[in-house]
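Lab notebook, bench 4. Still working through the backlog of constructs that have no structural model yet. Next entry is a single chain of 190 residues. Request: give me the structure tokens for it.
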Amino acid sequence: MTDFLNPKSMVTPGMAGALVMFLSNAICFQFPEMAPRWTALLLSFALGGIVIAAAKLQRLPAAGFWLINSLIIFAVAAGSAGVAAKTTTQSTVNSTISMMDVLIPNALAQIASTKSATVPTKAELQVQIQAANERLAAQEQQLADAQQQAAKAAAEAKSAQQALEAQRAQESGKVGQAAIEKANRFFKEW
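Model written out:
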């Protein structure tokens, strides 16, 4: 028990856990397809194996110590990673706002107003949704009206085109008739 409860033996799992967390985060950041938990577990067993190999114990006690030490290293690494993740997510917004206060002092009034802004209630959100739906319906009606006007203009253009073609055909016919009449007058039999 004295070997376990001394400062040197207490530092070892902490340092090993920190090393495993450090290495697994670095590996998983570079290779996102690897799961962080499995990478940390693998690294914990590798580090535990190195420690047991250095102790030169018999096989059965070495296997037991290897399993226990590796799981302790993994628990320390996973626990510290979990604490770091929770601390980071909780303080990210506050630290971002604090950093912006330092970097951009002109925006303090805007940041202060966003800090004190309340979260909208369900009723307020429903009113906003209703207003958005009404705007959407009005825009859909405008679109339908525009499509009807476009169809009406296309029909008018088509009828105007047909009238123009009919007028050209009629004029062409008149020109042809006039040419025949003129030719008949000139080449009259004597």
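Notes after review: The chain has a mean pLDDT of 77. Residues 7-91 form one domain. Flag for follow-up if needed.
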